[in-house]
């Protein structure tokens, strides 16, 4: 070969048809699996921090909510503001104890009484279209303390609530606001809270 002759370059070898191609490295696949699992855990923790689940046990909220229904609870809302009259809330009075679901009737500073089949707040009878039956009991006026609320079941004559054994509920005992009924499927829907202020303006 002369000094001026250039060496010939061999053509690049093309992979034969059907020959296995190098796959994504096992480390990349492992990383993707770990990322997916971590994302799933983060979403699970986030959802369980922001919301809760509650099973209706009994008939104290009839006809609004029914025994055996499952409800999603919004745990974030009351970090932004305190409960309002008409809200349906889930609360627990003792750590690890039973949870309850009732409707907020009285707020701090309110005077609540029950007479003549009506619930009266600060001298004004409440309009309560969500009740199946009016209360048959009476209750002497009670003033609600600071950082507390007065709650009643919608089934007034079959409910353990603030008028009887539970008393006023501290705000820090409230887990959250009932949000959505998700089970059974036929009962799916937004939990029907009630706005007394809106009712007055209509």
Please characterize this protein's 3D structure.
The chain is α+β, with helices and mostly antiparallel strands. Helices cover 17% and strands 29% of the residues. The protein has helices spanning 26-50, 77-80, 196-201, and strands spanning 51-55, 70-74, 88-92, 99-106, 111-115, 118-121, 124-125, 139-143, 148-152, 169-170, 174-183, 189-190. The strands form two sheets. Strands 1, 2, 3, 4, 9, 10, 11 and 12 form an eight-stranded antiparallel beta sheet that branches. Strand 5 (111-115) and strand 6 (118-121) form a beta hairpin.
Give keywords.
elongated; 17% helix; four-stranded antiparallel β-sheet; Umud Fragment, subunit A; 202 residues; alpha+beta
Secondary structure blueprint with pairings:
Blueprint: H1 26-50, E1 51-55, E2 70-74, H2 77-80, E3 88-92, E4 99-106, E5 111-115, E6 118-121, E7 124-125, E8 139-143, E9 148-152, E10 169-170, E11 174-183, E12 189-190, H3 196-201
Antiparallel strand pairs: 1-2, 2-11, 3-4, 3-11, 4-9, 5-6, 5-8, 6-7, 9-10, 11-12
Task: Classify the fold: give the CATH topology.
Answer: Umud Fragment, subunit A
What is the CATH architecture term?
Ribbon
The named CATH superfamily: Umud Fragment, subunit A
Q: How many separate domains? A: 1
* Low-pLDDT windows of residues: 17-22
Rg: 31 Å
Biggest beta sheet attributes: 8 strands, antiparallel
Q: Total helix count?
A: 3
The end-to-end distance, rounded to whole angstroms, is 105 Å
SS-based structural class? alpha+beta
